[in-house]
């Protein structure tokens, strides 16, 4: 088991034990729905109230992972407008990071409501739907993310386009989604 696989498994077990709803997003979700690729971090979406974060941080610390004091003090980072906190560990001179995104918007609530229990790396885990991974990847809008969108569209075949278009409009991603869909056809 690689260190990043251990990090994923440890966090999934912890969240399950603490009864904190989660969904895998990011590279591990792409591996579940698209063309498997290397990923060197863990991205999870959590349904948790901010006042419960200190208990989660304590439990993460007990596992031997680190949560920076700035997060323990109540600060959150943001990626594509989504709040997150980070847990990390150092193994073989390398930092492994888990980005824990907080589900606090209507779209993120929808992501959590549509998650699917599927096999991931040899065990069953909750993973955001392929449509939601596409939307999240379009929000991030990095080169690797746009490639991931194409991989998911190719591997998954027909998806819920009404859902994709509804949230693309809400999230100001209409042009990005239309471009991704055109590229898949062409």
Notes on the protein architecture:
By secondary structure, the chain is an alpha+beta fold. Helix content is 49%, strand content 23%. It contains 9 helices and 7 strands, in the order αβαβααβββαββαααα. The protein has helices at 3-17, 27-33, 53-62, 69-72, 106-114, 130-140, 143-156, 161-170, 174-185, and strands spanning 22-25, 41-46, 77-79, 82-91, 94-102, 116-120, 123-127. The strands form 2 sheets. A 5-stranded mixed beta sheet has the order 1-2-5-4-3, with helices on both faces. A two-stranded antiparallel sheet has the order 6-7. Strand 3 (77-79) and strand 4 (82-91) form a beta hairpin. Helix 6 (130-140) packs parallel to helix 8, helix 7 (143-156) packs across helix 9 (174-185) and helix 8 (161-170) packs antiparallel against helix 9. The longest helix is centred in the N-terminal third of the chain and has 15 residues, at 3-17. It is globular and about 50 Å long. The mean pLDDT is 94.
Strand content: 15-25%
Strand order of the largest sheet: 1-2-5-4-3
Helix and strand element order? HEHEHHEEEHEEHHHH
Overall 3D form = globular
- Oligomeric state of this protein: single chain
Q: What is the number of strand segments? A: 7
What gyration radius follows from the Cα positions, in whole Å? 16 Å
Number of contiguous helices: 9
Mean model confidence by pLDDT:
94
Helix content: 40-55%
Terminus-to-terminus distance: 39 Å
- Please give the largest β-sheet: 5 strands, mixed
* Main structural class: alpha+beta
């Amino acid at each position: 088991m690689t260190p990043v696989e251990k990090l994923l498994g440890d966090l999934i077990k912890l969240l399950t034990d603490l009864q904190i709803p989660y969904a895998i997003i990011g590279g591990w979700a792409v591996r579940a729905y698209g063309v498997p690729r290397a990923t060197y971090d863990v991205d999870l979406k959590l349904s948790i109230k901010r006042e419960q974060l200190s208990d989660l941080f304590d439990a993460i610390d007990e596992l031997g992972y680190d949560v920076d004091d700035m997060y323990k003090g109540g600060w959150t980072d943001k990626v594509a407008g989504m709040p997150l906190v980070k847990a990390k560990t150092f193994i073989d001179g390398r930092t492994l990071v888990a980005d824990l995104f907080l589900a606090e918007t209507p779209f993120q609530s929808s992501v959590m409501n549509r998650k699917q229990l599927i096999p991931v790396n040899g065990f069953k885990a909750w993973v955001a739907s392929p449509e939601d991974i596409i939307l999240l990847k379009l929000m991030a809008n990095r080169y690797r993310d746009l490639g991931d969108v194409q991989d998911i569209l190719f591997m998954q075949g027909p998806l819920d386009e009404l859902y994709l278009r509804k949230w693309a409009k809400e999230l100001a991603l209409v042009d990005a989604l239309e471009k991704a869909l055109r590229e898949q056809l062409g």
